[in-house]
Amino acid sequence: MPHDIDHDFLSLPLRTLADAALTRARELGAEHADFRLERIRAQNLSLRDARLVGSRDGEDTGFAVRVIKDGTWGFAASVVLTPAEAVRVAEQAVEVAGVAAGMNAERIELADEPVYSDVTWVSAYDIDPFTIDEPDKVALLADWSNRLLTADGVAHTSATLYQVKEQKFYADSSGTVTTQQRVRLNPTLEAFANDPESGRFDSMRTLAPPAGRGWEFLTPASTWDWDAELAELPDLLAAKLKAPSVEAGSYDLVIDPSNLWLTIHESIGHATELDRALGYEANYAGTSFATPDKVNTLRYGSDVMHITGDRTVEHGLASIGYDDEGVAGQSWDIVKDGVLVGYQLDRRIAKSFGYDRSNGCAFGDSPSHIAIQRMANVSLQPAANGPSTDELIGRVDRGIYVVGDRSWSIDMQRYNFQFTGQRFYKIEGGKLAGQLRDIAYQATTTDFWGSMEAVGGPATWVLGGAFNCGKAQPGQVAPVSHGCPSALFRGVRILNTTQESGR
């Protein structure tokens, strides 16, 4: 049901501080100024073997002023919510721009955006998780953990629940004023076991994705069947421990959305951030092979590949009404019919590269950090009348079905990679034939996506993602979702990870 923005956030001196800061920045000659006040509440619960071992509950409140003065960025922030401090911070931001101007080799200009006067946006959720008492949350996680612990073979469990409520007020010198609130949570349960005969020790984790939802995601009314997943997890883990090791070679793969989302994130999401492709950004993940000279010519993948950037999808972790530069949320094509056609943009990068408008990808992860270009919900679209996962498996004579994400590695151009998973099934004659283990799939980005023969229909599409996409220096983290259907890939190289490690 729709929610209003919390009154205790609206009662902060949002407009008074914004007016003071923006007025002072204009008086000092800033060509552009924006003000962002945030309150971010986060709670993280951790249980081991059904017992609470960690509880962290924190709040980060403050404001930032960003300016362009003489074509140069200036930025400053504070946690003191007074008009006098807002004036001081604006003065400091302008001073920073003055110092930086001597080092600036490129004049900063912003792409145009319509003015949005006093608009609000609240994400889609039913129950604010911060209205649920902590003992009730712990009791639920303990109950789920005990269900796993009482199953044969499960030796230990781990359970975590990370919840965030993010509230932002933004105003700029053009007249845009936005107020927003969004909620997200990330529940995870993992079971651990060992096999006495082989001496193997392994684990298996739930596949439920983090989501821009509220507490309802963990209730019986949830869109995710927690009871069913917890009931099957011990048997799946037992089968994994006894599964034979894979024979390295070339296989056809059917990849479940619970695994494919991460491959999208690393090989497409980061690669199509335009600041990275232009070489402005190289921290954490390097630059990108998908450089702007290849737009409309680079064959990123097969004809069935349709990748969108989206800041509007319901329950997406990167979904917003307006970004941290006052740009309205949008959806756009990144790869169409297998060809690179677009990028993720903020206002500065959009203007410098000749785009008429940003597509709303500016985000700062705290009031003390400047907004930078961040990833949208980058997703692989399903086929309108596409096959089911079983039908995709039915097309494979000799292959592997990949479920769940685990470890990964990719080079600094987002090009050479390998990924593992939670579990793998042998496919023989179009049917699943038991689990395999010690598997990683390896490819280059364009070879991998070029081998994609078919994508599943809308019924196979799932919105996965992560809370902790890293970027920048000093480092920032951002939540992001990636939707995708099940998909069929032909002739992908499979490594035996045990053999590769020399064991």
Key descriptive features of the protein:
7-stranded mixed β-sheet, 21% helix, 503 residues, 9-stranded mixed β-sheet, globular
- Biggest sheet features: 9 strands, mixed
Helical element count?
11
How much helicity do the residues have?
A: 10-25%
Overall form: globular
Characterization of this structure:
With 503 residues, this protein is α+β, with helices and mostly antiparallel strands. It has eleven helices and 24 strands. The protein has helices at 7-10, 14-27, 83-100, 134-149, 226-242, 257-269, 274-277, 347-352, 389-394, 445-450, 497-500; strands at 32-48, 51-69, 72-78, 119-122, 156-172, 177-195, 200-205, 249-255, 307-310, 331-336, 339-340, 362-363, 372-373, 377-380, 398-403, 408-410, 416-419, 423-428, 431-436, 439-444, 452-455, 462-471, 476-484, 487-496. The strands form five sheets. Strands 8, 15, 16, 17, 18, 19, 20, 21 and 24 form a nine-stranded mixed beta sheet that branches. Strands 1, 2, 3, 4, 5, 6 and 7 form a seven-stranded mixed beta sheet that branches. It has a four-stranded antiparallel beta sheet with strand order 11-10-9-14. β22 and β23 (476-484) form a beta hairpin. α2 (14-27) packs parallel to α3. It is globular, with a radius of gyration of 24 Å. The model has no long low-confidence stretch (mean pLDDT 97).
